[in-house]
Amino acid sequence: MTMIVRKNEKLRGVYVVEFDDGLIRLATRNMSPGFRVYGEELVQHEGLELRIWDAYRSKLAAAFIKGLEFSPLKEGAKVLYLGAASGTTCSHVSDLVEERGRVYGVEFSARVMREFLERVVKHRKNVIPILADARFPAGYAYMVEEVEVIYQDVAQPYQSKILIDNAEFYLKDGGWALLAIKARSIDVTKEPSEVYKREVETLKRGGFDIVQVVHLEPYDVDHAMILARKV
Ligand code: SAM
């Protein structure tokens, strides 16, 4: 199969792969060549192995495709990742920050953490697993340093409060937050757009500037990604 591969000009470390059937997908350079995390396709390009990034499985890929204009996930960045699950998106974040970067992956389900260890942590030196509840950030202070980015996807009520509390502990001034909001986890009775507005207001009161809000349909219904910066 022939394909065209180029780097996305705005989003550091993100590749765009155009297959000959017209399909366009995002990809990242595989930090652990030969290993797949969630059955994703691997493609070879100029001596690099790229992992195709499924926007139906990862809200971050969906946000990029839906027009998120800036990525703070640069090479060498330290990232606190809340809600690591079995590591689908976390593994692409690990690819983006590369060998010099670090990803602290917090997950509170022991069963899911076992999958995360097996699929991701075992094969990647830049990922540090933390079995803990993100609602209580003091609980992992002994493991986490100051970070440049917090990525959060916990599908819980009080999502903004969890982010603000973690930012107080770990996010440096001027640092970035990427918050995946699941409207129905916050309030099933309210329209998603009302929920997003309320979360945005909470983040502003909690010391963040809102840079962009991207709706993730059709990849994730009733979800949005908020890009914010700590002031
Ligand atoms: N970010 C993941 C990805 O894209 O691959 C998917 C995350 S999934 C929607 C939400 C995860 O957050 C679940 O694995 C859940 O166990 C975890 N979670 C929910 N509340 C949490 C909390 N308070 N502390 C830590 N993990 C939490």
Question: What features would you describe in this structure?
Answer:
The chain has 231 residues and is of the alpha/beta class. It folds into 2 domains: 3-54, Phosphorylase Kinase, domain 1; 62-230, Rossmann fold (3-Layer(aba) Sandwich). The chain has 6 helices and 12 strands. It has a 7-stranded mixed beta sheet, with helices on both faces. A 5-stranded antiparallel beta sheet has the order 1-2-3-5-4. α4 runs parallel beside α6. The N and C termini lie far apart (48 Å). 43% of the residues are buried. The model has no long low-confidence stretch (mean pLDDT 94).
Key attributes of the depicted protein:
single chain; 7-stranded mixed beta sheet; Rossmann fold; 12 strands; Phosphorylase Kinase, domain 1; 5-stranded antiparallel beta sheet; alpha/beta; 231 residues; binds S-adenosylmethionine
- The overall pLDDT average reads 94
Bound heterogens, unique: S-adenosylmethionine
CATH fold naming of the largest domain: Rossmann fold
The helicity comes to 10-25%
User: Separation of termini?
Assistant: 48 Å
Helix count from the secondary structure assignment: 6
Beta-strand residue percentage: 25-35%
Based on helices, strands and strand pairing, what is the structural class?
A: alpha/beta
Q: What is the radius of gyration? A: 17 Å
As residue ranges, the low-confidence spans are: none
CATH class of the largest domain: Alpha Beta
The CATH superfamily of the largest domain is Vaccinia Virus protein VP39
Q: Outline the biggest β-sheet.
A: 7 strands, mixed
Strand order of the largest sheet: 8-7-6-9-10-12-11
Number of domains: 2
Order of helices and strands: EEEEEHEHEHEEHEHHEE
CATH architecture of the largest domain: 3-Layer(aba) Sandwich
Quick one: overall form?
A: globular
How many distinct beta strands? 12
